[in-house]
Amino acid sequence: MTITVKTSIAKPAKSTVNVAASDSEKLIAALDKLKGWAKYTPNLSVTPKYGKDKKMSDCTIAAKPTTKVPKWSDYSRNTKDRQAEWDKMFPKLEKYLDNHHDKLTKAIEKAAKELEKEDFEKSDFDKWWKTKKTELEDVSKDYASKTSDGTSEGVSLDVIDPDPVEVATDIKSPSTTQYAVSGKSIKGVYDALAKRKFWGRYRSNGSAKMEFAYDGCLKKITVKAAPVITMPKWAEYSKMTKEQKAEWDKMWGLLNTHENNHHDIFTKGMKTLLDNIEPLKQKEANTYWTDENKTIQDAQDTYDTSSAHGVNEGVSLDASVDP
User: Which of 197, 225, 228, 231 could form a disulfide with 206 if both were Cys (CB 3.0 to 4.6 A apart)?
Assistant: First the structure.
C-alpha cells in the first residue's frame, strides 16, 4: 500500500536580535557571543493518518522554519566605511540562511519519497520519524558546521579603523604690543632693558578644540592661535640723534626677527603635531596635545639658549654712538 505524502514548508519567519557596538572590534565580539551570527531553526512536525487496518494512509511532513539575524543598533552612528563593511556582509548572511532553507527543503522532499514506499503501522512510523527528524535537523547543523557558521561563505567582518582625524587651523600672524622703556641715551635705555626679564617676548596663545566620534575616537581637531609679540618702545626716541635712532632701529629689527623665528618654530611644530595626529581616545588625545606642545616649547627654549635670546644674532645696543 502506497502512502500519500504531502509536504508543507513555510517561508522562514524572520526575527532580529539587537547588537550594540561602537566600533568594528566590539561588533565582532558581540556577534561572536551569539554562537552563530545568524540562526536557522527547522521546527519540523508530522501529521500522520491511519486506516482501519492500522496502516498509515496519509502523512504531511511540515516545517515552519524561523531565522534570527542580527540588527546592529549603532549602525547609523558609525563611520561610512564600517557601514559599508556591514552592508557587504549582510547579504551573504541572508544567502547563508537561504541555503539552510534550500537544503532542508530538498531533504524533506527526499524523506517524503522514501516514506511513500513504506508500509508502516503507528509504532513503525514513530521509530522512523524519530530517526528521520534527527537526520533532517542535522542537515542544518551539518551545513553550519561545514561553513563555520557561514564564515567560509563570506559571513565575516573586517576590522575597520576609525576615520582619519579631520584637521582645521586658524593660526593668525603675530600681532605686536609694546611696553615703554625710558633712557636719555643708548646706554641709559640699555641699562633699563637690562633690568627686565626680557627685551622681546613671543606668546603663541594656542588652543585646541577636539571633537570625538561615537566610538570615542578623535574625529576632528581645530587649532586656533592668536600669537602676540611684545616689543620695547623707547620713550625718548624722538629726541635722540640720527645715530642713536639708527642703533635702536637695528636692534629693534633684529629682536623682531628673533621673535618671529619663535613663531616659525610654533607653526612648524604645530604642523608636525597635526600631520601625525591619530584618532585617539580622549585621554590619549589630551596627552598627545600636552606632550607635543612640550616638544614645541623645548624647541623654543633650545633656540633661546643657542641664540642667547637673540644676542648671538646681533640683538644688542652699542653705546659708542652716544654723543
Answer: 225
Domain assignment present for residue 158? The answer is no
Cα-Cα-Cα-Cα dihedral of 108, 114, 119, 121, to 10°? -30
User: Is 317 part of any domain?
Assistant: yes
DSSP 152: G
Do 111 and 241 lie in one domain? The reply is no
Contact between 163 and 79 under an 8 Å Cβ cutoff? The reply is yes
User: Do residues 252 and 200 lie in contact, with contact meaning Cβ atoms separated by under 8 Å?
Assistant: no
Q: Domain end: 131, 153, 175, which one?
A: 153
In this structure, the answer to whether residues 54 and 112 fall within a common structural domain is yes
What's the mean per-residue pLDDT of the chain? 97
Residues in the chain: 323
The C-alpha cell of 107 is what?
Answer: 531533504
Look at residue 160 and tell me if it is in a domain: no
> What confidence score (pLDDT) does residue 1 get?
64
C-alpha cell, 292: 607635543
* Continuous segment of H or E residues that includes residue 99: helix 80-116
* Inside any domain, residue 230: yes
Distance of CA 110 to the CA centre of its chain: 51
Domain that holds residue 91: 4-153
CA dist., res. 53 & res. 47, Å (int): 18
- Work out the average pLDDT over 251-264: 98
Compute the average pLDDT of residues 144-159: 96
pTM of the model: 0.81
| DSSP state for residue 202 in the 8-state scheme | E
Q: pLDDT of 161-170, one tens digit each?
A: 999 999 999 9
User: What is the grid cell recorded at 323?
Assistant: 654723543
pLDDT for 65 beyond 70 = yes
Residues 199 and 268 both lie in one domain: yes
Read off the DSSP letter of residue 38.
Answer: S
